[in-house]
């Protein structure tokens, strides 16, 4: 099997979108992460869910998690609303790593190796012009591997 055979269409975000939109989109659509694209539809970043969560957490709490204990429960439960007008682009590192992506003809092993190496449950599938054509989620990959693998009934 190849990437194009198991790729699915996922909603994307842009660098100018609010952080809250990225978080909501991931939650509402039950996504394992989110793909940030430019105006031409080329992936800029593939963010696993934990990285999307990092966009919403104030940096002071990320650098010193013990500070979170100083916030009462009511306010702690509202931390994700703090980003306010901050955009996804505001939260991305200046020197982003190349997005986790594969070509449509990538094998399941190539996808699995990239996911494992990048610790990402999501990989973008891009064409020759690096335009997003779909995505492979960890769940989709594992389901495909289970179907393609040998029977366990022996």
From TrEMBL:
Pfam families per the UniProt record, alphabetical: CBS (PF00571)
PANTHER family named in the record: CBS DOMAIN-CONTAINING PROTEIN, CBS DOMAIN-CONTAINING PROTEIN CBSX3, MITOCHONDRIAL
ATP-binding among keywords: no
Lineage: Bacteria, Bacillati, Actinomycetota, Actinomycetes, Mycobacteriales
Occurrences of domain CBS (ranges): 1-63, 94-154
Protein's name according to its UniProt entry: CBS domain-containing protein
Regions that span the bilayer: none
Alphabetized UniProt keyword annotations: CBS domain
Keyword Secreted: no
């Amino acid at each position: 099997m190849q990437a194009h055979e198991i790729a699915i269409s996922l909603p994307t975000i842009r660098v100018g979108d609010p952080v809250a939109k990225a978080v909501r989109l991931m939650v509402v659509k039950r996504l394992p992460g989110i793909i940030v694209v430019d105006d031409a539809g080329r992936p800029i970043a593939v963010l696993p869910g934990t990285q999307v969560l990092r966009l919403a957490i104030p940096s002071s709490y990320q650098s010193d998690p013990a500070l979170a204990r100083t916030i009462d429960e009511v306010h702690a439960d509202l931390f994700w609303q703090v980003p306010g007008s901050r955009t996804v682009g505001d939260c991305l590192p200046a020197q982003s790593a190349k997005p986790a992506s594969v070509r449509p003809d990538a094998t399941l092993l190539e996808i699995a190796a990239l996911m494992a190496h990048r610790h990402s449950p999501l990989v973008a599938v891009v064409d020759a012009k690096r335009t997003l054509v779909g995505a492979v989620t960890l769940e989709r990959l594992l389901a495909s591997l289970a179907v393609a693998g040998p029977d366990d009934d022996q």
